Amino acid sequence: MIKNSYYLRVSFDIGQESERLDWTILDSDHQPVQKSTGLETGQYMLDVNDTLRVNVVANSYLGELSSVHIIDCHLIHRPVMFSSRGNPAHLAGKYPYPSPFFNPATMVNGQGATFSFGQGQASGTQLQMSWDSDAALTILNQGRWQMSFIMTVAIETAKGLEYRVFSFDPETQVGNGSVPPDGA
């Protein structure tokens, strides 16, 4: 029994210099679902039996898009230990199943560590094209996971065809990320 349907929206601009995706999770009305109050502030909270699809948005601030083909896109997840905050004592310090979507014994062999949302052709205008996956994941397990995403796209403009890889892996950087501050 499906409770709610969500979209993992990932977006990029074909002119951007980095490979980083902008991303968020949206409800079926395409509204953000990140918690702004309470124990889960700043996190995305989904429930067992919710479904998750991907929505890819390709932008071109110069209006140069002719075609965008999603060659592959994968969601990668890693379990995070239950904290003592908000969890019964018997869960604190333990890990959830390796995947929110499957019940594998291992994350290396078989399904579990990654899920492919498939491939497809984006549609739209020279300024913006989008694609929604047909494939959906159903959430089966409770817990916390760090999620990453990687995809390969073929972008066609008047200048020709270009293959790009885009991803997100939630990380934080302080300063320029390469040199420690003075006095360190």
What form results from the Cα inertia axes?
elongated
Say how many strands there are: 11
Structural class call reads mainly beta
Distance between the termini: 55 Å
Based on CA atoms alone, the radius of gyration comes out at: 19 Å
Low-pLDDT stretches are 108-112, 171-184
Summarize, please:
This protein is an all-beta fold and 184 residues long. Strands 1, 2, 3, 7, 8 and 9 form a six-stranded mixed beta sheet that branches. Strands 4, 5, 6, 10 and 11 form a five-stranded antiparallel beta sheet that branches.
Task: Kindly describe this structure.
- The structure is a single chain.
- This protein has strands at residues 5-13, 22-27, 51-59, 67-80, 114-116, 120-121, 123-124, 128-132, 137-138, 144-157, 160-168.
- The protein has one domain (5-168).
- With 184 residues, it is an all-beta fold.
- Strands 1, 2, 3, 7, 8 and 9 form a six-stranded mixed beta sheet that branches. Strands 4, 5, 6, 10 and 11 form a five-stranded antiparallel beta sheet that branches.
- 0% of the residues lie in helices and 41% in strands.
- Strand 1 and strand 2 (22-27) form a beta hairpin.
Main attributes of the structure:
disordered C terminus, six-stranded mixed β-sheet, 11 strands
